[in-house]
Every structure is written in structure tokens, then in C-alpha cells.
Amino acid sequence: MLQYRIIDDLNLSAEEIEELIATLPEWRREEALKFKHIQGRKENAMAYDLLRKMLGHEPRFEYGSHGKPYAENGKNFNLAHCKNAIGVVIGDGEVGIDVECTGRYKPGLAEYAMSDDELKEIEQGGDLAFTVLWTKKEALLKLTGEGITDDIKTVLTSERMNKVKIKSGYDTEKHYAWSIAYTCSDADSDIDELC
């Protein structure tokens, strides 16, 4: 079964952030503390904390062929965060999630990353359309474990979409968009929407 959750209430004091970081396992604490600014530390710690709450225990990670982590019980998961929201997706099949703040649209980036049809969508929908399309691409690439590739323009029209579904959403008041990518084995079951 597929579960996902997007949280956009990231209001923690500096003291609460430090307390949360202190509850993390040492390896994750070290990862959170690599962020120079408190905002990055907060996002990293909150995303991991949400994952362990959704799993119901402290996860131990194992890694696949592309270095993509999964939980030791065989559950696939993925984390994402930006300054306005965090997201976690868990599934029996492969999964990926991306959360991005709106306001990043730049014509040069769109030309580099988007197909002709996607550019037409952006002409109609502006920055929000760009951000949703970007999160779809990132979520799919996180599902496969590949990361950004040379053929980013064709990601959503390629064979990678075979047996993959993508669900997207956005919040115009809080200025972010998100997408989850999941395999059809999860698509055949009910989606447990925790948003």
C-alpha cells in the first residue's frame, strides 16, 4: 500500500530544532548538521522524523544499486524537502517524491529541462506549471534512483513511465508544489492519503 504525507507547517523555534536533531540517530544527526543554515537542518530533521513516525519505528537503511535507500523491512521510501514543505512517501513498490518552492522559473532552465509540449504548458500556467512539471521529473528520477540525467527533457515521455503513476499537487498560498511517483503495484491498491 502507498502512503504519503506532505507537511507545510514547519514552524519550529531554533531550540525545538536542536531538540529534534538531538533525537536523531547519530548518522542522521551528522547528516542534518552538515547543513550550514538552520533551515536546512530543520528540513532534514523533520523529513526523517516524519518517516520514522509513518513507519512506526526507527528505520535502518539499506541501499540499492544506484545508492537509493530503502528500509530494512523491504519498504521503499523517499524523502523531500524545501523551505516551505516536507514530504515522505512509503510503498511496497518503487517510489519517489519531490517538493519544490514556486518562484524558481527561469526561461533558460525551462528550455534546458522541458520538452516542447511541456514548454507550452508553462506558457499557459507560468511558474506553477513549471514547478509541478519539475517535481514530476524529480519524483520519477528519484523512483528510479538515477537522479537528473542528460535526457531530462524526455523523462516524462520515455520508457521510464512504463508502469509508473504520478500524482501531483500544490499550495498557492504557501508557495510550493509536490509530486509522488509510484509503481503500478502500489497503484492497484488504495492510496492512503495522509495530507
The number of helical segments is 6
Number of strands: 9
Mean pLDDT: 89
The biggest sheet, with number of strands, parallel, antiparallel or mixed sense and barrel status, is:
4 strands, mixed
Estimate what percentage of residues fall within beta strands: 25-35%
Give the low-confidence spans: 188-195
- Tell me the overall shape: globular
- The radius of gyration over CA amounts to 17 Å
Strand pairing plus helix content: what structural class?
Answer: alpha+beta
Keywords:
four-stranded mixed β-sheet, globular, single chain, three-stranded antiparallel β-sheet, 39% helix, alpha+beta, disordered C terminus, 9 strands, 195 residues, 27% strand
Task: Give an overview in words.
By secondary structure, the protein is of the alpha+beta class. The protein contains six helices and nine strands. The strands form three sheets. It has a four-stranded mixed β-sheet, covered by helices on one side. Strands 6-8-7 form a three-stranded antiparallel β-sheet. Strand 2 and strand 3 form a beta hairpin. It is globular. The C terminus is likely disordered.
Write the layout of secondary structure elements.
Blueprint: E1 2-7, H1 14-23, H2 26-33, H3 38-55, E2 61-63, E3 69-71, E4 76-82, E5 85-91, E6 95-101, H4 107-113, H5 116-144, E7 164-171, E8 176-183, H6 184-187, E9 191-193
What is shown here, in short?
With 195 residues, the chain is an alpha+beta fold. It contains six helices and nine strands.
